[in-house]
Design goal:
The complex is a heterodimer of chains A (221) and B (261). Helix content of chain A is 80%, strand content 0%. By secondary structure, chain A is mainly α.
Chain lengths: 221, 261
Amino acid sequence: MDHNWDFASVLANKTLLLIGLKNTLVLGSVCLALGLFFGLFVGAARFSGKSWLYYPATAFVELFRNTPVLVQIMWFFFAFPIIAPFKIDAFTAATLGLTLNTVAFSSEIYRAGLQSIHKGQWEAGKALGMSYWQQMRRVVLPQAVRRMLPAFMNRAVELFKMTSLASVIAYGELMYQAKVVSTISFNPIEMYTSVALIFFLVLFPATILVRRFEARDTFRR
Amino acid sequence: MTEVLRIEGLHKSFAELEVLKGIDLSVNKGETVVLLGASGSGKSTLLRCVNFMEIPTSGRIHLEGKAIGSARNGRVAYAERELTQLRSRVGMVFQHFNLFPHMTALENVMEGPRTVLKCDSSECRRRGEKYLDKVGLGWKADAYPSQLSGGQQQRIAIARALAMEPEIMLFDEATSALDPELVGEVLETMKELAEEGMTMLIVTHELGFAYTVADKVLFLSEGSILEQGTPAEVLTYPRQDATKNFLRGHNMFRLPEPQID
């Protein structure tokens, strides 16, 4: 290879990259928190078996699961402002796209987790005189969440990688910053190598953590 | 004698299938009543109607002289709050134990007093330890269900129900899922409860247990009580053909009294 690797231009712009990393983490964290929060309600609606909750929730989930995230982000940035009565900046559009996508996926994790708990557990709580929410809170969720954790952590890793898609609407996350800098300093090879490395260094420890959770036996079974 | 439980004209249907076809039954304080019958005869459904795990299609259930639900236009309506409250006064033991796997033995037993009765933590602990000791498993307080044998798990499930200090205990085939050598310890625990004057309604296939412990035995067939009486009457001198066939099936292969001590 006759390319002369030179990371000096990357280091010279490290402040811009750090801003990008910060924005990546902000976008990812906000979307993760919102997505997991609203996902619980959508998942519970799908779990409930009540048709007036089930069908709208299912329609939502299928819509967001079966369209590309990149398209969702672009749509919220370019098309949504036409029908929405307010201004939408890049951060809001990216947040909407990624959050709704995370809601759709995490709701499935919640639903599957709740369904995996044997009905005898609900019955045991009920027979003691617990209300539906007491059964949920004391008996079912503590067991279900333990089973959901690996899936949620996988989802979080996926989400942080997907934040790079927000670069297409000029949100200043890591990927966008790298693109801007590389067009000025003509160093795309070193720049994108660095971006990959940064993502890896942030996400790899998280993946290790996921594996630790998956390996750990719950309740010493 | 005070009547703890009275069931009047109980019907239960699942869609087209009529499982219970008019059951009348009364259980007095301190009595042990055993329900027998082939599978599909409706005995489990009857038991599950008593604490409203299944809502009766029609008929009335009285606990301690008070009718559950309110009758309106010939139908009985049940408020969820009333049923929740009723269930806290009726203990139930399941075939598959259904212990909470994320809690230790002691936490399992404390859970009802804590979450439902809102006892303070010292009272919860006192009750938890008392009833664990009662089933002889105080020494397993910190064990998780997965670390215990089936027999131990079922005894803890009994303690969990007892900790609510219920007016009546329901046993739904409590020994059917156990390995044969573990059945004895659970039946022994149930027998002790009966002797201490607990009111119990038991679905079981353990005829020997029914004979020794029950005050009254009922034989269910196709959703109706076909025959009832003392254990000696029903189990040794059955009158109905269905009862005779049922007992014949159970006694087809029988050991002579084993010579062990």
